[in-house]
Amino acid sequence: MNVSATAANGNGNGRSSSRAVTLRGAWRLGALLFVAGAVSTIPGTFVLDSDFEPWMYAVTGVGILSGVACLLVPWWRASERWLLLVPVVGAIEVALSVALTDFVFSHLYFFVGLYIGLVFPRPRQMAPLLALLVVALFVPSVYESEPVEEALLWALAPGIVLTAIVVGRLTSGLEASRETYRRLSSEDGLTGVGNYRSLIERLRHETSRHHRHEREFAVLTLDLDNFKTVNETQGHLVGDLLLALAGSMLDLKVRAEDAVFRQGGDELSVIAPEAGRKQAELLAGRIKAAISLINSGELKVTASVGCAVYPEDGLEAGELLDAADPALLERKREIASLPQRILRGPQGRSPSERLRSNRDWPWRPPGARLTRAPRPLAI
Fold first, then answer.
1. Predicted model pTM
2. Cα–Cα distance for residue pair 116/104, rounded to 1 Å
């Protein structure tokens, strides 16, 4: 159950992907490198023989046109596989430039290697592209080469490969750091579900998305009954474990497209996309049944659940949360009116000692876990 809204890419820079560079950024980078490579060939017109002049102009023009083509690609509809065209076309263009003009244009392979390292940093992605690049580097020398040029090619090839590998490692490190920061900024440290910030971001995203498609979705708000009593009688350590376990139970019981969040204290929320009131009530029943399975000896845990449906109960994130709260409070008043059996835990012992005295605590079903890394949002 997904807590992150990064796949929506709220900054508008392109679809989120497994790479450190966004899809839009990758196409813009390709355009920049094509144009930069084309501009770098201009000094060659003053050095090489005039016999090569038409071909040199052609090389510069083709590079600029390739850059413009990258800018015109509809990246919002294009598959990520289309990005493979950038290094492949680039390697072919450089090979033709070297074959038709002079060896001096072999420096353009560094632009292709730089793109490979930035956009395809993983070894399994990088290896075949670097192999293609090295083959393209040596192809012109098969037909015609001089000893000096061949020696320079053997010196140039390791440099290009090493550049791509170093850039790829740095890019992978940046990607890992960004993912860690994103997880820490959107995940509740105790329960492993989304925090309040990610709840609001996801609600805003879902209201916008469902407004466009004219569909409804549900927001469920729940908290644990008598949680204060648990903290007072069993200790805060047990209370923390109870919250973590409740988050895991919710994560197991909701649908794959649903998202679980912790608002604060013992209050949790679930966002159920494409769900109406009936579906939300069924989901609330599953959640309450799952929470009721948490017990240790005489301790029985129950939950009160309130529900709000977009757009019937509200059009914005705050309105939906406000609409879900009265239903939750009404349920809690019903619970409070019932006779309660309060468990009085052993006094005079530390929380860790009380935990050891309850050998079956915390109980959790197979597959449940107390911490999880958030998964990308399914759109």
1. 0.56
2. 22
